[in-house]
Amino acid sequence: MKHRRIIAVLSVLLLAVMLAFILPGLTVENYQYFLSQRLPKVVAIILTGSAIAFSSVLFQTITSNRILTPAALGLDALYLLIQTVIVFTLGSVSLLVTDKNLNFVLTTVVMVALSMILFRIMLNRENTNLIQLVLVGMICGQLFRSFTSFLIMVINPNEFVAIQNKMFASFNSVNSGILMIAGCILFFAVIALRRDLPVYDVLALGRDHAIGLGIGYDRIVSRSLILISILVSVATALVGPVTFLGLLVANLARQLADTYKHSVVFMISILMSALFLLGGQLFVERVLNFETTVSVMINLVGGVYFIVLLIKESKL
């Protein structure tokens, strides 16, 4: 009953924020225009929040670490590198830059492909564990950031604006065609994940306990990493990097749910993620008048929360 009340309260709050985001200013004369501008943002926020929440909770479960998120694999840095290389080699007027659908598909495919190559190389080696995989991902992420910084330093200043727009997550201009593609990908990823929910409840006990209870640990972890790379790649390619959102919602959801059942933790984290993103976007648009982006606010709050978690873990 406690979990149902929490989910109900979060659902009501999310619905209230959605109405506050969509309804103001609507009249009989202008409702079509306003809905065409606002509804895609809401859908993009829900899809992005769901993907980040799912991937973050799942990643923390398989790594048995509450301060790690898929950002440790360097996928956000890879996204910026891909965008920078495209602009650097082909220019900001290239079809790969101006056509958002093509850019989304290309970015998602490259990110998923490189992630799977990394997983295959690392997990097929003997005595390789997830911590080593994370360390390699962090090193790759730093390498990607360094190469991106180098290209930005030598790129034509007029082309830099196209890259700058990709550095922060933005819901101000969302392509409805991309939403359909992203929605389909996320739907099938979640369906593939749903049947393994009871397995993740056992996996949370740790590798040795999971194997002792008959779980095919390596198979589940490999499949989970593929799903994580797909979810993070889609979310990042859709709106841009939101580094600390997953850390924030995954840990708050676990504390709020106070249960081992991933079905509950996933639902609460999704609702909180959508609520934070939509509430932040509402605040940015109506209060700050677009003087900043929602990703800056989320990263600020999430960064402070990350420091608090580190201090808390060091005292245990």
How is this structure best described in words?
By secondary structure, the protein is mainly alpha-helical. The protein is 78% helix and 0% strand. It has 14 helices and no strands. Helix 3 runs parallel beside helix 6 (130-154) and helix 12 packs across helix 13 (262-286).
Indicate the topology.
Elements: H1 2-22, H2 31-63, H3 75-90, H4 95-98, H5 100-123, H6 130-154, H7 157-164, H8 176-194, H9 197-203, H10 207-212, H11 217-239, H12 245-257, H13 262-286, H14 294-314
Helix pairs in contact: 1-13, 2-8, 2-11, 2-12, 2-13, 3-5, 3-6, 3-7, 5-6, 5-11, 8-11, 12-13, 13-14
> What kind of sheet is the major sheet?
none
N-to-C order of helices and strands:
HHHHHHHHHHHHHH
Helix content: over 70%
Overall pLDDT score: 78
Low-pLDDT residue intervals, each spanning 5 or more residues: none
Tell me the number of strands: 0
Computed over alpha carbons, the radius of gyration is 20 Å
| Overall geometric form | globular
Q: Total number of helical segments?
A: 14
Distance between the termini: 31 Å
What class do helices, strands and sheet pairing give? mainly alpha
Portion in strands: under 5%
